[in-house]
Write a structure and sequence with these properties.
It is a single chain. By secondary structure, the chain is an alpha/beta fold. It has helices at 34-43, 60-66, 80-90, 110-123, 163-172, 180-187, 206-220, 266-278, 284-287, 301-312, 335-347, 365-368; strands at residues 7-13, 28-29, 32-33, 48-55, 72-75, 97-102, 125-131, 137-140, 143-146, 153-155, 159-162, 192-195, 225-236, 245-247, 250-252, 317-326, 354-359, 372-383. The chain is built from twelve helices and 18 strands. The strands form five sheets. Strands 1, 4, 5, 6, 7, 10, 11 and 12 form an eight-stranded mixed sheet that branches. It has a four-stranded mixed sheet with strand order 13-18-16-17. Strand 4 (48-55), helix 2 (60-66) and strand 5 (72-75) form a beta-alpha-beta unit. The radius of gyration is 27 Å and the shape is elongated.
């Protein structure tokens, strides 16, 4: 009885996440980054002899540190096809079959992997496919044509083939293909489509992350988690007559500005601290130290944007912000709505989930004497199934 083929897996993680709107590979799913779910699915599979990762060049060091048991971590190319080629090339000569999988598909199962391997053994190349349930129409110059959906399939990864076949097909490719199967077909191979898995979701758009968490919840029995963070900041007015006053990302023209390393937007600082605190991510002094010259004069909206990215990488979603400005002057007046809108847009929240209030300190203490401005903020975050 012949011995089973030696199978290596290549995880393609070199994308930029442009459609997702950020680095989705480090998005938290049940306490682990998105890519690690697929990585462990192959690493823990007894049929897989080795696993390598293809990543953006600037992330090679980080992935080598995070996945020290990977057989290789190599920089990707400008296209997915070039990244996949580099991964296949990095596989050792002993590899007889190579499976290429999108790192953004976290739910690949042992059964699906086994079906693809069996398809490669049978036909030299294989990939999982799913039937199309919607009616599909093709637009033409003379009108529309309804296609026979019983003959159509959507194709997933992992896509696998004999390593020698893949190497020759990559070498012969004279154009860019959307997946390995298309390239192999153009090369003259006759791949087989095996049964796909509806849960083998690819995280492409922001809403896909919520769907992934919903799929993950029954597997982990992880409940919805809610956290609240409190932020506080205070800044004195500056003696510099030319220093502008920024509050809530809005310029208050003609008013004395606040002293600080950045633009000293006390309200945004308090909100950023609340967001970071809710997720247990230290405070703005740790993430944006005033000893670092790159933050000198920085617009505090940047602090909000970075704080938002930091908590979303760990799976947190913002629910609402409630903030209070404490000052004798200026009066917020009509600018309060502008502040709410600016904060909401920066955080990607509906404006009715951001509240900005104002009060005085009844002429008590330094704030009451008009020496500066303080702000409190509360941020509510959730993590888990929608």
């Amino acid at each position: 009885m012949p011995s089973p083929p030696i199978v290596y897996a290549v995880l393609v993680a070199a994308g930029r996440g442009e459609r997702f709107g950020g680095d989705k590979l480090w998005l938290d799913l049940d306490g682990a980054p998105l890519w690690r779910h697929a990585y462990r699915a192959f690493r823990d599979n007894a049929r897989i002899a080795g696993v390598g990762i293809v990543v953006a060049p600037e992330r090679v060091g980080r992935f080598r540190s995070e996945a020290p048991d990977a057989d290789f971590v190599v920089p990707g190319g400008e296209t997915r096809q070039e990244s996949a080629r580099r991964g296949v090339t990095a596989c050792p000569d002993e590899a007889e079959i190579v499976l290429i999988h999108d790192a953004a598909r976290p739910f690949v199962t042992p059964a699906l992997i086994e079906r693809v391997i069996a398809g490669v053994v049978e036909r030299g190349a294989a990939a999982p496919g799913l039937p199309i349930t919607d009616t599909v129409k093709r637009l033409g110059e003379e009108g529309i044509e309804t296609l026979d959906r019983t003959r159509l399939r959507t194709v997933q990864t992992p896509q696998g083939a004999l390593r020698g076949l893949l190497v020759r097909a990559f070498g012969a490719a004279d154009r860019s293909f959307t997946d390995e199967l298309s390239m192999l077909e153009a090369f003259g191979a006759n791949p087989v489509l095996v049964e796909g898995d509806p849960d083998n979701l690819k995280i492409t758009h922001p809403g896909d992350a919520d769907l992934a968490r919903a799929l993950l919840s029954p597997r982990t029995n992880r409940p919805m988690e809610t956290r609240t963070g409190l932020g506080y900041d205070v800044h004195a007015f500056s003696a510099d007559p030319d220093r502008p006053l920024w509050l809530g990302g809005v310029l208050f023209e003609g008013h004395a500005g606040l002293e600080g390393h950045s633009d000293a937007d006390v309200l945004l600082h308090a909100i950023a601290d609340a967001i970071l605190g809710a997720a247990g991510k230290d405070d703005i002094g740790v993430h944006f130290p005033n000893s670092d010259p790159k933050w000198a004069g920085c617009a505090s909206k940047t602090f909000l944007e970075v704080s938002k990215d930091l908590v979303e990488e760990e799976g947190w979603r913002m629910v609402n912000i409630d903030a209070t400005v404490i000052a004798e002057t200026p009066r917020l007046g009509s600018k309060r709505d502008d502040m709410r809108l600016t904060i909401a847009q920066t955080l990607g929240l509906p404006s009715d989930r951001v509240n900005v209030k104002a009060t005085t300190n009844e002429r008590l203490g330094t704030i009451g004497r008009g020496e500066g401005i303080a702000a409190f903020a509360v941020a509510t975050l959730v993590r888990g199934p929608s």
